[in-house]
Amino acid sequence: MFLTQTVPRQREIIEVVLRNGWDYMRRLLTGGKADEPQLPTPAVLKNILVDLGPVYVKLGQLMSTRPDLLNAAYIEELSTLQDEVPPVPWIDIEILIRKQLKRPLEETFSKVNPVPVAAGSIAQTHRATLIDGREVALKVQRPGIDLTIAQDIALIQGIADLVARTDFGQNYEIKSIAEEFTKALEAELDFTREAGHTDLLRRNLSRSHWFDPTQLVVAEIYWSLTTEKLLVMEWLDGVPILSASLNNSNGKDPVAERKAVTTLLFRAFFQQLYVDGFFHADPHPGNIFYLSDGRVALLDCGMVGRLDPRTQQILTEMLLAIVDLDAGRCAQLTLQLADSAQPVILSRLESDYDRMLRKYYNVSLTEMNFSQIFYEILQIARNNKIRLPSNMGLYAKTIANLEGVAQTFNPEVNLFDEIQPLITDLFRRQLLGDNPVRSLLRTALDLKSLSLQSPRQVELLLDRVTSETLRWNLSLHGLDGVRRTMDDAANRLSFSILVGSLIMGAAVISTKAQTSELSFLSSVLFAVASLLGLWLIVSILRSGRLK
């Protein structure tokens, strides 16, 4: 169905692909030999996505969050994609805003700036003032973008269905990847989801014993005015963090201020990742603002990630394994994270990790780039056909963006220096939880239950042993072939013994034969033995086993 509905779009995509010189598609359409499909080079892929328009730019941005699928060169190239597009005329935006509001525009806002402060592929943002004087930001969905995305999603899913029939599509699980991307695109069309994420992040970061929550800001959401296509939130007056001009005019030492800001960011994201399990997954420079009052703000919660407690614990141990350059432990933890039960050669995985980590043997912790090492871990997992959960890509991308922003803002900063004081506290929290007394009481109850149950379990075991009712149920796979081989060998051995016995009996009778009846019996035994021996030889030859 999608083929007939999206023919013009298909033609446009083919033209863009050919114009950018993707050799695989060129060979395919010209009737040449088309080998296994390979991705275009990073630069060509970026150009293709830009030419295809805003939806595919957004798709490229989502792909840049998946270092578990693409190597570092693609991630780096796609990370530079910006979805800045010409803004929609104010008259169209005003119509959409009026449709979303419960009351007339003039009774809700005293002023709305018709010139957007930012314009993206899905929405654009305007500054406005409520009737009561509060400054707000209006994030307004581009009119008609939902229909455009629906058409492109149908096309992406249709192409994925076709590619999934090839070995290439099955090896890379193209269909499930396309499903993940389309769900992410659809989720960005519902601004109430982003509002909910923003509220949750705001609540989580409003309390912490690692940093001062008053120095970190997440915009307040005005739920009474927010809809699926209109997001109304607190206006935060500031500039992107890399554009901030720190000087002595505010009475703060610029060097100390830079260090304080980077420490604040690292600790805030460390809490999100390893304590809260819910994190802002797109901390690029445009989403981190330095406010006019010296506070730091996190903007745009359209892309978030989640980590369950088990994954948080594994990633914490992975952090220590990287610090210790422990290849064996890295391999074990990778398998614990794995999303599938596909068999893996552990020795090969350990060898790959050892070869990678050996580069860092003589490198100090202050010179190590954690996000780069984790990217390499994901690359090795991918090479060993290990499929990791998609949130691992968001985790790695978040760490990489955070390190990149912090090091640009403060070149002296290092991730390990910043988080080292938190490691001990983190392990204590994972071991005892937020309430140590409650955790100790729960452990005591578990031990009490175990102590009460153990004698009864031991008594049942001894009863079964003494009454000879204990049975062992073992299920060993792959033994059917061995059993059949042993049965065949036993049968042939039995026939061989039978043939030998007949020959020996016939020989004894022939030497003692005094009558014609005994001579005839001896001949019959020799004939039967010969036929059985011939049958045994033929069966061995037909089986192909002469050994």
TrEMBL record:
Keyword Plastid: no
Transmembrane annotation, as ranges: 493-513, 519-541
All copies of domain ABC1 atypical kinase-like, residue ranges: 81-333
GO molecular function, one term: kinase activity
Domain of life, per lineage: Bacteria
Swiss-Prot/TrEMBL keywords: Kinase, Membrane, Transferase, Transmembrane, Transmembrane helix
Family: Belongs to the protein kinase superfamily. ADCK protein kinase family.
Protein's recorded name: AarF/ABC1/UbiB kinase family protein
Protein species of origin: Nostoc parmelioides FACHB-3921
